Amino acid sequence: MAAVAPQVSIVVSTKPSQARPPLRPVRQLVLGVLGVFGFKPNPAPGTANNPILEGLWGAYRRIESLVSNDTPTVKGAAVVDTSLTTDGRVAVTLRVEFDDYDGNALSYTTTDGAHGTLTRNTDGTYTYLTDASTAGDTVSITARDKGFHLHGLLGMFKPGGGHTSTATLTLTLDPVGEPPVTDVVISTPRTGNSWTVRVPSHNPEVTLTAGQPGHVEITRATDGSYLVTVTDSAWALANPGTQITVVATATTRDVNGEIQTVSSTVPIGTVSNLMTIGGYLQPPALPPGTTWVQARSSSIGEVLLRSDGAAFLVDIGITGPIVVPELPAGLTYTQVAAGDGHYVLLRSDGTAIAIAGYPYLQPALNIPDLPAGLTYTQVAAGADHTVLLRSDGAVIAIGTTLNGETEIPDLPAGQTYTQVSAAGYVTVLLRSDGTAVAIGINELGQTDVPAPPSGVNYIQVATGAHHTVLLHSDGNVTAVGYNSHGQLQIPDLPDGMTYVQVDAGHTHTVLLRSDGAVIAIGWVPNGIPTLPDGVVYTAVSADHSYTTVLFSRV
C-alpha cells in the first residue's frame, strides 16, 4: 500500500513588522524627470528601458542607498510541492520571496525547526525535511541587504541595524489518503512466544488487533509500543511454525476530506517449534518465516540455530553475557555444538569458531586453519575439548587431553570418519565402514563400543560423557556405559517402527522414533510431553539433565 504525502499549509509572520516605505521627495523628482523620457522603474514583461536612463536610475539608487536604507520586506510565501523521500520522510518545497525597496542584493540564512530542517536551494526555493510523524513545525528565513549605508545613529538601534527582516513560517502537515502505518510494522522478538511491536505513524488513530484472537493477547505500553504474546499454550503446542499476525488499522482522511479506515494484516513472528525440558532458560522468539533447526545445551546455557542461519546463545552469564560473533557478509551458521563451558559453531564457508564461557578453556578454542581445498563439515564439544570432522574424512581434536579424548586413532586404509560426538572427557567417532570407536575416560565402560551385529552398521553415535548410544541401520539401538537410572535399557520397538535419531545426556537417553514420538529413559523427571494430533517430534538433543526437542505439524 503506497504512502501518500501530507497536505501542508503555511502561515507567515515577519519581524520587524512590514511597513510601507516612507515617501522620498528626491526619489519622486528623479523618477518624474526620467519618466518624461519614458523610463519606468518596473517595466512590463517583455519591455526594457533605455540603457542610458537605466544607468542614470542605477547611479541614483547607489547614491541614495548610502544615506538612506529600508528594511527588506516579505512579498509572499507558498508551498510549491510536497513529496516523500525514499526513506519515508516528508520533503516540502517552499517559495518565499523578499523585496528590498532600495534595490540592494540580499543574502539569506535559515533556521531549522524543532522537528525538521530548512535549506535554501540553488533555484531560490527552500526545502523543509521532516519525519512522516510530524504534525507541525516552525522555521524561519532571515534576509539581509548587502549594501553599505550612512543612515545615521538611529539605524544602529533598529533590529539588525535595519538591514534584516525575518519571515517566520508556521507549517501544518495534515495526513491525506492511505497512511504509511499499514506498511511499516516493526516487530522485535522477545522470549518464548512474545514480540514487541512498534507502528511508526503520524496518525494517532492507530489500533492493533490480533490475527489469532483467543490465542494471542496485545497490550499497549506507555511508550506507544505493543506487547504481542501467545497466551494459549495448548494452541501454541498444536501450531508450531504458525505465523503470528496483527491487524494494523488507521483512521485517516482521503483527498476529499472524507474519513476512511485503512487496515492491513502483517506477520510479526512465528510460533516456536522448540521445547526445552528440564531447563529454565527461555529461547528468543522467532521472527516471521523462521523456525529452529538445531539446539544444543550445556551446563551453562544453550546454543540455538535458526532456519535463516542465525545462531543465538541463551546463557546464564557466569562471566558476563556471551555474544555470538557477527558473521561476514554472505555467510550463515550451519551447525552448533555445546560443551561444558564452551560453544562451537560451524559456518557455511566450512570454517568453525569456538566461544568460551570460562576463560580457562582457551586450548579448546584454538581451531586450526584448514589445508587448502578442505572444509570442516561437523563439530562437537566436550568438557574441555573440541572435535571437528573435515571434508576429507579426517578428524581434528583440540583442547585438554587428560584421558586421551583428543588422541584420534589412525584409520584403516580406505576408511574415513563420517560423524563425531563429544561430551565430558569422551569422544565417539563413526567410521565409513559402519563401525564406531570411542576414546577418553572409561571408568564406567562408556568407551567399550561393541562391533555392530552381523549385517548391520552403525549410522549415528552419541555420548553423554558417562554412557554411549549407537543407532543401527536396522533402526535398533545399542547403549553402553553407566546405567544408574536405566539409561541403557532401550525399549523394544512396536511392529513396523524404527528409531531414527539418538542422543545422550549425563544420566538419560533420548530416542526419536519413526512415527514422530520421543522416548526418554533414565533420569527424566519431567517426562516428554505428549503432542496433539497432527504434530510430531522432528529432532532430539540431550545434554546434562536437559532434553531439547523440535516439533512440527505433519
UniProtKB/TrEMBL annotation:
Lineage: superkingdom: Bacteria
SUPFAM superfamilies xrefs: RCC1/BLIP-II
GO cellular component assignments: cytoplasm
Keyword terms: Repeat
Every RapA2 cadherin-like domain range: 68-128
Keyword 4Fe-4S: no
Name of the protein in its database record: RapA2 cadherin-like domain-containing protein
Native species: Mycolicibacterium diernhoferi
Source lineage: Bacteria, Bacillati, Actinomycetota, Actinomycetes, Mycobacteriales
